[in-house]
Amino acid sequence: MTWGLTGVSVTRGGRLVLDGATLDVAPGGIVAVVGGDGSGKSSLLAVLAGLLAPTAGQVGTATRSRLGFLPASSGVYPDLTAAENLRFAATVHRMGSAAADERIRALLAITGLTAAAGRLGARLSGGMRQKLGVAMALVHQPDLLILDEPTTGVDPVSRADLWWLIAREAARCAAVVLSTTYLDEAERAGEVVVLDHGRTVLQGAPAGIVAAVPGQIRAADSRPSGPYAWRRGRSWRVWHPAGGDGEVIRPDLQDAVVVAALREAEEAGDE
Ligand SMILES: Nc1ncnc2c1ncn2[C@@H]1O[C@H](COP(=O)(O)OP(=O)(O)OP(=O)(O)O)[C@@H](O)[C@H]1O
């Protein structure tokens, strides 16, 4: 059973925010949805979660009881303790109390939150709150786990913990779809979907996406002229669509995403 979206369009506030977007995820797979601010990541996940109705296209998703969802706001109730938040999520998913007790104990241990079980959501650190939110989304061992920016604003140690938690879910054969603005992180996913202005501009395994970058990329110390240049750390990179002379840099996922956005902008300009 694979889940996903085919040619999905969504209009919000009179604007087309998803424009024929596509995504597939299979059990045991992790798909990372990446894209700049406002590219449509949250809208895409909301459609997959059945929270937002598309104006066109097909949605194949799990039944509500087999679905786990982490909203961008983490979904943690500030005036409930960490354990109470998990208990609430277990109750919503109609877990029996014995099964819930055992699962809550295990999840608190896995997320390193056992000592903070009695602490109010409002008093948890950002990283703790995200881990709790993810634990709430997966308390009932869903078949499809949808996580909206689970690691945004989280320190590197908690990010590693979160990835471990997510990988465990995939290992027990859940299908996982998550959004992220961190491209280094997206490289850990089996598949990446790159959104630009609501369109899927790249989709596939990170290595395949990188291998398929057309043309050549070179480095420059100062800002190069022309439209195909972008900053990378202290230096610049330039895309040469037709290739040419000079030392070539092997692109990474970040470069591949930039090139895809440049090509997309060019095509939009041609229309
Ligand atoms: N409820 C809404 N009503 C109207 N427009 C909306 C609504 N929610 C989002 N949008 C618009 O839809 C577009 C896509 O937003 P969305 O939140 O899906 O993107 P995103 O990639 O998740 O961005 P971000 O990372 O900034 O949250 C944006 O232009 C946003 O302003």
UniProtKB/TrEMBL annotation:
Keywords: ATP-binding, Nucleotide-binding. SMART domains: AAA. One of its GO terms (molecular function) is ATP binding. Gene3D superfamilies: P-loop containing nucleotide triphosphate hydrolases. Pfam families: ABC_tran (PF00005). Signal peptide: none annotated. Residues 3-222 form the ABC transporter domain. CDD domains: ABC_DR_subfamily_A. It comes from the Bacteria. This is ABC transporter ATP-binding protein. It comes from Paractinoplanes ovalisporus. The lineage of its organism: Bacteria, Bacillati, Actinomycetota, Actinomycetes, Micromonosporales.
